[in-house]
Amino acid sequence: MWTKETLLFSDTKTVKVCGNDITIRALSSGEVMKKGDDNELVFERIAASLVDPKITIEEAKKMPLDRFNALLAEITAFNSMNKEANQGN
Predict the structure, then answer these.
(1) Domain coordinates in residue numbering, the chain
(2) For 82, which DSSP code?
(3) H-run or E-run covering 64
(4) Cβ partners under 8 Å of residue 66, min gap 6
(5) pTM of the model
(6) E-strand stretches of 1-89
């Protein structure tokens, strides 16, 4: 049986991004479903998902594009936000 704590618990995962370990967490439904400027939401999701190292939205905007894209791909896959992960669900 689910408890409030287990239902609200956010899983974490350590992934390699450009050869280095980064710990990300699963986003909450509110973070994924939030409405607003799609470009701004991407930076918010990056900052919200990073556990180690923790960065701000403004710092996410300063990331080199290769690292940003690699991290975004990991976050998207981990949160089942990509089309491939949602097929058959």
Answers:
(1) 11-81
(2) S
(3) none
(4) 18
(5) 0.78
(6) 12-17, 20-25, 50-52
Instruction: Identify residue 2 by its one-letter amino acid code.
Output: W
In whole angstroms, what is the distance from residue 76 CA to residue 34 CA? Answer: 15
CA distance 53 to 74: 15
Q: 70 in the Ramachandran plot: left (φ > 0), alpha (ψ -120 to 50) or beta?
A: alpha
d(CA 40, CA 38): 5
Q: At what angle do helices 38-49 and 65-78 cross, to 10 degrees?
A: 80
Main-chain phi, psi angles of 20, to 5 degrees: -125, 150
Predicted confidence (pLDDT) per residue in 29-75, tens digit: 888 888 878 888 999 999 999 999 999 999 999 999 999 999 999 99
Residues 19-31 have a mean pLDDT of 91
Cβ(79)–Cβ(71) below 8 Å = no
Task: Say how far apart CA 55 and CA 34 lie, in whole Å.
Answer: 20
